[in-house]
Amino acid sequence: xxxxxxxxxxxxxxxxxxxxxxxxxxxxxxxxxxxxxxxxxxxxxxxxxxxxxxxxxxxxxxxxxxxxxxxxxxxxxxxxxxxxxxxxxxxxxxxxxxxxxxxxxxxxxxxxxxxxxxxxxxxxxxxxxxxxxxxxxxxxxxxxxxxxxxxxxxxxxxxxxxxxxxxxxxxxxxxxxxxxxxxxxxxxxxxxxxxxxxxxxxxxxxxxxxxxxxxxxxxxxxxxxxxxxxxxxxxxxxxxxxxxxxxxxxxxxxxxxxxxxxxxxxxxxxxxxxxxxxxxxxxxxxxxxxxxxxxxxxxxxxxxxxxxxxxxxxxxxxxxxxxxxxxxxxxxxxxxxxxxxxxxxxxxxxxxxxxxxxxxxxxxxxxxxxxxxxxxxxxxxxxxxxxxxxxxxxxxxxxxxxxxxxxxxxxxxxxxxxxxxxxxxxxxxxxxxxxxxxxxxxxxxxxxxxxxxxxxxxxxxxxxxxxxxxxxxxxxxxxxxxxxxxxxxxxxxxxxxxxxxxxxxxxxxxxxxxxxxxx
Length: 519
Fold this sequence. Notes:
Elements: E1 7-16, E2 23-25, E3 28-33, E4 38-44, E5 47-50, H1 54-59, E6 61-62, E7 68-71, E8 82-85, E9 91-92, E10 98-103, E11 109-114, E12 128-129, E13 132-133, E14 137-143, E15 154-156, E16 162-175, H2 182-200, E17 217-226, E18 236-237, E19 242-246, E20 263-266, E21 272-279, E22 281-288, E23 296-297, E24 302-304, E25 309-317, E26 325-330, H3 369-373, E27 380-382, H4 388-391, E28 399-400, E29 406-407, E30 409-417, E31 425-438, E32 440-444, E33 454-455, E34 459-461, E35 475-482, E36 489-497, E37 506-515
Parallel strand pairs: 17-25, 27-30
Antiparallel strand pairs: 1-16, 2-15, 3-14, 4-5, 4-10, 6-7, 7-8, 9-12, 10-11, 11-16, 13-14, 17-18, 17-21, 19-20, 19-22, 22-23, 22-24, 26-37, 28-29, 30-36, 31-34, 31-35, 31-37, 32-33, 32-36
Domain Rhamnogalacturonan lyase: 239-312, 325-514
GO molecular function, one term: carbohydrate binding
Organism: Chenopodium quinoa (Quinoa)
């Protein structure tokens, strides 16, 4: 606690001594159970609501899993029945900087959890975690398998020396000074306090020897450029690229890395970036660029020393590509947000998610809307005719039969080709925004029940379909397609998600592309 500060700072020191045995952790979080008078929850500018009481939740009707219920607000007789599910309020860590609750009464009070940095979270700034939910409860999940899978663990070996500071984060309290829209007043003040905390980061007050103060940190900067000879003869600035430092590892390893610190920033329109406040240590440099497939990893590790300002100058990323684009579906941005997200069934609406169209994916039961939209036949997408914002369902899920059995769904992509080279090698690239106990089978121009040309292994456990995510963990798939599988005129690509053991098995596509032979 600091003099003159309306709140308190919290941080956790994790210390595994060399004398300690091996251990595994599946979750590290802090939960605050507030008095019932805190009944207005604020997650963001566009997700705010009066929440049900705990008794309403207990009296509610359970839905497909225990966290989701249908409830009626007993304290408001005019309230309509609605769905409540804590996963509807999850956020990426990069967006989860401040959230909290506001109390009822003559002079409302705000309770806020403020995080000035994401460096101490596991798996980077795109990892999704819970925020607040009915209780009233506010959470900070530093590490868990949410949107990653039950195998997402923090493991420390026998005799391994490991230390980490989680936090500090700020528990901030404020009080309305007037009765003129007090909720908006308290939320605005909380956001202003967040900016003040960001300006003070890294804090100077923590007494832990392993917490790195400002003079114990360095920075890494440069300019990220893209080389894609099929798009331009010139290097392309990596506008709005996400660039980060994480523990040394393979391409993409940062999204399952659980023990170290991660430092990320967003490049400007010219691809310039500077990552500030980096702890002393050895890192891999990773990056990905909205609009470009794949991910960059620097060819050598980077050593950061206190006070050092490392300039990498120009860094060039060559996205995966073997030939010219023949067709593409979606935008390579690691989410399924650009695809068609249906309206929820009227009985399952959460009104708090209606104010912004971008939150529609958070509504309950969207996996069952597929069969409502495609009652007789599975999805068929025709290149050059269909529009992926309207004609490509956001999640490849199962079909339900009349007796409620689940069956694999086979989607079709129909596409015309001219001058097919039977001796050439074509490339089908599929990037996934999420995979949950899924397996894809790929066929070209054959009976969709015949032996597939390509089959993936069973992929993913991120459960993003059930937990109202628009992404989970990112996957890249590439298939070398012989020209003998293709034909002049109309072709059909069949995509079957073959595992139908649960309504939540499936994938969310990020982007699909067929490339011609190299030229």
